[in-house]
Amino acid sequence: MTSSIDTSGSTEVKQMPGRVLLISLLAAGSSFGFLIWELGWLGGPPSGLDYFIVAFGILFLGYCAFVGLARIVMLRGAVLTFSPDGLIDRRLSKTLVPWSAIRSLGTWQYGWGQPKFMVVELTPEFKARMESTLVDKWKGMSGRAVGADRVSVSALGLDIEYDRMLNTAQAYLEAYGPQSPNHTSKHD
């Protein structure tokens, strides 16, 4: 299946601002709903455990809405790029990940019906020097807690389906990874 993918040039994947906006608006609306509950407009303010759940909902969903809206404004053009030199996901890092630094690609899914993530296992040397964003560092901590202890790339909000994204990455890895005849070590 990966043989039909052209790896001679770059493949760019853009975000779908409409989808990201919808998710951001849902998060903002939910955060606002928790705020209404907190203010007691629905019969009285929460107490005990409900108070902490409401506070977490306001803060976490508000943060999710902010991140989504910031991505719409700040990430223009290609967000995910596959090229003969490597892979870059601008949502996670500004660093190009050369194919020679990738040990393996796989799929991780928390539960049936949940979104899939492409799991990229990097060499320890490259991962140690990779310039990550705060979101990636947070995802790394939360990922370790549920068993996804590697860099993960999602197709959520992008104009590519998950299976196509994984097949594209595998095709480039086969063509330019450490085991390929095209392998060069200029990024090692």
Describe this structure in words.
It is a single chain. The protein has 188 residues and is α+β, with helices and mostly antiparallel strands. It has five helices and seven strands, in the order βααβββββααβα. The protein has helices spanning 17-38, 49-74, 124-129, 134-146, 162-176; strands spanning 11-14, 78-83, 86-89, 97-98, 102-109, 116-122, 151-154. A four-stranded antiparallel beta sheet has the order 1-2-3-4. Strands 5-6-7 form a three-stranded antiparallel beta sheet. The longest helix has 26 residues, at 49-74. The chain is elongated and about 65 Å long. The mean pLDDT is 81.
Q: Compute the average pLDDT.
A: 81
Task: Name the quaternary structure.
Answer: single chain
Class from helix and strand fractions: alpha+beta
> Helix fraction?
40-55%
Largest beta sheet: strand ordering: 1-2-3-4
Biggest pleated sheet: 4 strands, antiparallel
Rg for CA atoms: 19 Å
Task: Please provide the count of β strands.
Answer: 7
List unreliable stretches of 5+ residues: none
The total count of helices amounts to 5
Strand content: 15-25%
- General form: elongated
Topology as H/E string? EHHEEEEEHHEH
Distance between termini?
28 Å
